[in-house]
Design brief:
This protein has 17 helices and 27 strands. By secondary structure, it is of the alpha/beta class. β18, α8 and β19 form a beta-alpha-beta unit. α3 crosses α4, α4 packs across α5 and α12 packs antiparallel against α13. The chain is globular, with a radius of gyration of 25 Å. Fructose -6-phosphate binds next to α8 and α15.
Length: about 600
């Protein structure tokens, strides 16, 4: 959480930093701030609240210079006030920080005993003091940073300026993301690629505890012994246009509409068109995959829901037992890793702290890891034994949409691949699923064309305080995902339940004020059972919104409102059923006037525990 950026070069430094912060705002928006080296002094301007507040403050105060850093905050230590906003300054040093210094209280206490005074409640300010302290004892900039960070426990990505160093700045990291962007006579650092992709696509990454000294001409990277490290750069395929709204009112809406394209990009390059079989080149030489005895799927939030769908797929298509665990639970529960256990961490950002730690826990216990990630060069992608990249493109809206459906797509491919490798999946079955998958993007497009039909439903129910979402089997995780989407962007309380569980508790909630959204596609083994659940809900005056299949004449009689989807095989149905649920949440949030792309209290990339 939190976004940091740094720039040195001939452009308008303030503009580069503010634009970068705007692209990083999805990481946190409790406060924002910049520091610019103006002549031989450093000017710091910060403001509580969103970046727009900072922009207002800077309107009459243009800071010009060639070097600067910026920060957008998701508060961890200390409330979201201007005082706690970054950059933090102490003496000669000004820093921005993403992460958490776990031992900051201990460090703060010992610094206070030495006479240091602190103005903020943050853990970050301690770092500025430690660097200044090393400076004061005669160390140069690089050594001072090294000495300071060697005392930190926890996670950090830092941009560091010193008034005495007008021509360079330092970046360093541990367990927090940071990329370096290289240009001609200009260099960038940022928490994420979208912040700098307008200026350069040439990216270098920094390993934990390395120190990058950034000047206009180049970036020199030192390892923890301060030996110079040669690091080559590579070009990213994300383009500036991909991080624009392109006429959509919100990124979330754009990203909902991008799903057919994202799925095509994720699936097509992995299908052999002449044989309709899956090719996963990334796993081609991994012989262990033919004898996997157990699969563990790990993720958080929406990625956790993808894991739940993955369980159905892998068990059905590859006949391998699957455990699903929330990353935050797995890492602390002394898990059993048997020989031949495959662990699949799923993460859009590739930076979620819990998923990274859970994966490392599994690796430490001998599991083989294959990550499903969207962000190239992210920490999870770099730390896993193997990676399958989804090609969703940058996802900017905080509520995940296209990342989810591309994670599902990758799980279909992985299930088919594992089933082929262990010989449990008949060839005809692989063909059927592949052909079905290839038909999904146009079917989604046809659904997208009709999404406005849901606006009437939103108008009818947007004032309700609670929603219940029901689904069964492979669509139970979709009910959970629909409820999560509604909660996070509209702030309406919503619960997802397995429909069969309704009469074991949640039925008590149902009355004429409770909309019940039911995911009930035709063709499932439990369709009839869901109809009984609907009857039970209707008998208690519940207002039923059915996500059903075109041509289904029995379900509508139990529904107050319906949205119909084209027919597809049950096993593929989650790719379709989730689309109206994403849009329903979006459309209700718009009616309620919430901040759809940056809902309160949330951040896109959860890099703290
Ligand atoms: C919900 C949402 C979050 C993320 C979760 C994991 O819309 O976006 O629940 O799915 O924080 O994030 P990643 O996939 O980046 O690990």
């Amino acid at each position: 959480m939190c976004g940091i950026i740094g720039y040195i070069g001939d452009r308008d430094v303030l503009e580069v930093i503010l634009e970068g912060l705007q692209r990083l705002e999805y990481r946190g928006y409790d406060s924002a701030g910049v520091a610019v080296m103006t002549g031989d002094d450093l000017e710091v301007v910060k403001s509580a609240g969103k970046l727009s507040n900072l922009r207002d403050k800077l309107r009459d105060r243009h800071l010009s210079g060639r070097l600067g850093i910026g920060h957008t905050r998701w508060a961890t230590h200390g409330k979201p006030s201007e005082t706690n906003a970054h950059p933090h300054r102490h003496g000669n040093i000004v820093i921005v920080h993403n992460g958490i210094v776990e031992n900051y209280l201990e460090l703060k206490r010992s610094l206070m005993l030495e006479g240091h005074e602190f103005y903020s409640e943050t853990d970050t300010e301690v770092i500025a003091h430690l660097i200044q302290r090393a400076f004061d004892t005669g160390y140069d900039f690089v050594h001072a940073v090294k000495i300071a960070v060697s005392r930190l426990e926890g996670s950090f990505a830092l941009g560091i300026l010193a008034t005495s160093e007008p021509d360079r700045f330092i970046a360093t990291k541990r367990n927090s993301p940071l990329v370096i962007g290289c240009g001609k006579d200009e260099q960038f650092i940022a928490s994420d690629i979208p912040a700098i992709v307008n200026y350069t696509r040439e990216i270098k990454h920094l390993e934990d505890d390395e120190i990058a000294v950034v000047t206009r001409q180049k970036v020199v990277i030192y390892d923890r012994n301060l030996e110079i490290v040669e690091r080559s750069s590579h070009n990213v395929t994300w383009s500036p246009i991909m991080v624009e709204k392109l006429g959509y009112k919100h990124f979330m809406l754009k990203e909902i509409h991008e799903q057919p394209r994202a799925l095509i990009d994720t699936i097509m390059e992995r299908v052999d068109k002449s044989t309709n079989r899956i090719i996963l080149e990334e796993l081609e030489n991994v012989s262990e995959l033919s004898q996997v005895s157990k699969v563990v799927l790990l993720g958080c939030g929406t990625a956790g829901h993808a894991c739940m769908v993955g369980k159905f797929l892998i068990e059905k298509l590859a006949r391998i037992p699957v455990e699903v665990d929330l990353s935050s639970e797995y890492r602390y529960r002394d898990p059993i890793v048997l020989p031949d256990t495959l662990v699949v961490p799923i993460s859009q950002s590739g930076e979620t702290a819990d998923t990274l730690a859970a994966m490392n826990e599994a690796k430490g216990r001998g599991a083989i890891t294959v990550a499903i990630c969207n962000v190239i060069d992210s920490t999870i992608a770099r730390s896993a034994d193997h990676v399958l990249f989804t090609h969703a493109g940058p996802e900017i809206g905080v509520a995940s949409t296209k990342a989810f459906t591309t994670q599902l797509a990758m799980l279909y491919l992985l299930s088919l691949y594992l089933g082929r490798k262990n010989g449990k999946l008949p060839l005809e079955h692989e063909h059927d699923i592949v052909l079905g998958l290839l038909r999904i993007p146009p079917l989604i497009s046809s659904v997208l064309d009709r999404l406005v039909e849901l606006d009437n439903i939103s108008h009818r129910f947007f004032h309700c305080r609670d929603f219940l979402y029901l689904g069964r089997g492979i669509n139970y995780p979709i009910a959970l995902e629909g409820a999560l989407k509604l909660k996070e962007i509209s702030y309406i309380h919503a619960e997802g339940y397995a429909a069969g569980e309704m009469k074991h508790g949640p039925i008590a909630l149902i009355d004429e004020h409770m909309p019940v959204v039911v995911v009930a596609p035709m063709g499932s083994r439990t369709h009839e059972k869901i109809l009984s659940n609907l009857e039970e809900a209707k008998a208690r005056n519940g207002k039923v919104i059915g996500i059903i299949t075109e041509g289904d004449h029995s379900t509508p009689q139990f529904c107050d409102e319906v949205f119909s989807l084209p027919l597809c095989a049950e096993v593929l149905s989650p790719l379709l059923t989730v689309i109206p649920l994403q849009y329903l949440a979006y459309s209700i949030a718009v009616l309620l006037g919430t901040d759809v792309d940056q809902p309160r209290n949330l951040a896109k990339s959860v890099t703290v525990e």
